[in-house]
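Data card: per-record layout.
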Amino acid sequence: MATSNVSITTSWTLVKTGPTLLPLTISTPTIEIELSISNTTPLDTLVGGTLSKAKPYSVLLPLGQNLYARSKNGTITIVLDDGVGSISANSFFSDDIGLNISKGNVLGHSAEFKFARSNAITTTESVVWDGGGDYHWLTSAEKMSIVSTSTEDAVGGTGAITLIIIGLDADFAPIQETITLTGTTPVITDNEYLRIFRAIVLTSGTDSATTDANKGDITVTGNISTELVAKILIGNGQTLMSTYTVPAGKTAYLGAATFGAGEGKQCTFKAKLRNAPQASGGAFSVKYDIPIYESAFYAAFKTPFKIPEKSDTCFTAKTTVGTIDASVSYEMILVDN
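The structure for this 337-residue chain is written out next.
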């Protein structure tokens, strides 16, 4: 079998039985790979590379691309010729696409899970997040000011000590940093953020699953704009906010969401998406709308919602009377453009 710029140090064979995908990654230019199957069952799935229909199957796999091959019930043997360089095989690929994305087996894919809760949903529509009421996205990147309402959230205290904030920079690229809290004295970040969509307490002065979180409300605000962009309520240990912005170079696919409404009340949830860039006046519109009465509901979308890069999204809620405790969570797959 002919090869071109083969990246293998020795003859290399990998055998796996059953309906299982086998991931391989090539570290140098195109290689020709032979896939042998132990019976007459054809390949059921092939992702990556260019397939020759002749048996045994021959696949041309470009640099940096993963190959996943599956037979319905046969044994797949991958045969590679001698050459120079290296080739790697990751853990075996199962039929659970979500598990494989979480394991890092799917090139260019990652998972994002968002969850939010608010105990202050009223008859006025508001974004589901810790800050309550509406949410205002920053118009330019700036440093963040982070402070607690408790002096115990500091080195030597019984509450939160270090905190990681996660968001996007001015170019919508992912960015994060860890800061050390100083109680009621604000700490200014080193980085400038255009978006913040998560903050998590990393270390605490108390070792307990029920009492080691932040002792005060921790707020994250723009150091110049003073806009509140994230908040960790007492005891939560992290933000519970439904807002998210898709990073540059990615497309998000929202595949499922869960909604919860408190006892004795009805709550109407809406999924909102900004339809154009914020800088050009992009407005939000409703993409999903569902009323829930004192219960929880899981919605799985057979065709996921597509959310383009740099797009802002969130979930809102309102009740018919009084104040209600409401929650929402949603699952997304991020795919490289």
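Known properties of this structure: Residues 110-122+243-336 form a domain with the Jelly Rolls fold (CATH 2.60.120.1330). Confidence is low (pLDDT under 50) at residues 1-23, 81-93.

See the next section for split statistics.
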